[in-house]
TrEMBL record:
PROSITE patterns: VWFA. It holds the Pfam family VWA. It is found in: Secreted. This is COL12A.
Length: 278
């Protein structure tokens, strides 16, 4: 597990460096859905808040950049603050640290319904031009898994990208069902291990900004792939980028390394076990 965490950190760091250099514009509407159920406990809840605070510190906060909202949930969801409430990193960080702990059950399905109805809306500051991203953080299994999967799918149908962060005994299968892609599932063995993935949310968000952009129009004279790598160190990313959610980014930057130019001739890409979302 320690090896997997280190590979995860290395991969996200490389993506972060490249997307920063390429001009990752963090115009996103980002909502954190935070488990505050009885299994968390007040001490561990403070660690979750530190994780959220450190995660958003990687973004530029403002009406033309990233906006962040927060909801906590246990037996019932509780609206903490809207996307357009805080305009800078300092006030946002302070608000996160003052989110109260609740205790109670783990009614994740009810919380996801609440998100759909109350967060990604114009009155809460949602912007049409921004990518909507939900980050759900939990340490267990929801009380109603089928309903949870259904409500998560409703959000995905509204073009909300979901990142799932599991801690300790979190149900990995359910996390994969909730997330928009298995590559958007992050797992920490315990609450202290959250400190190893502080930059992961920003890295995934940057990747989403790139992969959801409209690709340039091509003509018959420009469809021949030159089979070159735009990034010099594609091999350091590993074959993880050649599949799944990272494939659009890799097709533009690591076409030679991933052998995308040979796909049309029937060549088969190597298969592998994904590191994230196992």
């Amino acid at each position: 597990m320690a090896e997997n965490i280190m590979v995860l950190i290395f991969f996200h760091a490389l993506i972060f460096l490249h997307t920063t250099e390429a001009g990752c514009h963090d115009k996103i509407d980002l909502v954190f859905l935070i488990d505050a159920s009885g299994s968390i406990g007040s001490a561990n809840f403070r660690k979750i808040k530190s994780f959220v605070s450190n995660s958003v510190s990687h973004f530029t906060i403002g009406p033309n950049d990233a906006q962040v909202g927060a909801i906590t949930f246990s037996s019932q969801p509780h609206f903490q603050f809207a996307l357009n409430k805080y305009k800078d990193n300092s006030s946002l960080s302070n608000a996160i640290q003052h989110i109260p702990y609740q205790s109670g059950g783990t009614n994740t399905d009810t919380a996801l319904t609440f998100v759909e109805q109350n967060t990604f809306t114009a009155i809460s500051g949602d912007r049409i031009s921004a990518q909507n991203i939900l980050v759900i953080i939990t340490d267990g299994k929801s009380s109603h898994p089928p309903k949870t999967a259904l409500e998560a799918n409703r959000l995905k149908q509204r073009n909300v990208q979901i990142i799932a962060v599991g801690i300790g005994n979190a149900d990995k299968a359910e996390l994969n069902n909730i997330a928009s892609d298995p590559a958007y599932v992050l797992y920490a063995t315990d609450f202290d291990s959250l400190s190893h993935i502080y930059d992961a949310i920003h890295s995934i968000a940057c990747n989403l900004v790139f992969t959801t952009q409209t690709p340039p129009t091509t003509t018959a004279s420009t469809t021949t792939c030159p089979c070159i790598d735009e990034v010099a160190n594609c091999n350091q990313y590993g074959v993880t980028i050649c599949h799944g959610a990272y494939k659009p980014w890799a097709s533009r930057n690591c076409a030679h390394y991933c052998e995308f130019c040979h796909e049309s001739s029937g060549a088969t890409l190597p298969t592998f076990a994904p590191i994230i979302g196992k």
